[in-house]
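Record type: monomer structure entry
Structure origin: computed from sequence
Chain ID: A
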Amino acid sequence: MKIKFKNHRIIVRILYLLIKFIFYSSRINIIGKKYLPEKSRLRKNSIILVWHGNMLIPIYALRKGRYSLLVGLHSDAELLNTFTSFLGYPSIRGSSNKRPIGAILDLVKEIRKNVVAITPDGPRGPRREIKMGTAKIIKKVNPVIIPIGSSSSKKVVLRTWDKFEFPLPFSTISIIIGKPFRIKNEDSPEKICKFIKSKINEVQHHAEKLC
């Protein structure tokens, strides 16, 4: 069922209060805080990468970073955009299907001057696979890359392509911020995809083990 945009603000406020309670009632483990851009002074030419199905926990927990977020233009993304805007995140709107060239140019410009958070398997999958377009942008800009993984001991896993995870109250919530790295610019996009995927999976599996 599609939700009309005029109702999103109400839904977002309810969602915010629910997530706030979940975090308040849960035990939060954040490992690798020193690698966050605001801690290491990496305030430009850096990107944060997290799998689409695991993005909710970092979006809330790391909201004070005010990173720019890449958000799609499809109808389901409107709720996400309203929620992230409510939390204080600026957004870059675009997708591979709608205004692709403009979105790429906006993304490249934003990466060069700010920290941008991206779900490299979004917005429609395949799950936990790096998109070739993302690899090409990374090869062009060569930013510092910060992989993030997250999980919770109690959660609902939605029946969506990304198996989106929604944490439940009284959980153990883990967030792993991986050591920043750069890719070798001479590598092919295929090799870049494989390498970045391994780095995100490494922190994601670490987060899951702690829960």
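Annotation 1: Residues 1-5 have pLDDT under 50 and may be disordered.
Annotation 2: The first strand starts at residue 27 and ends at 31.
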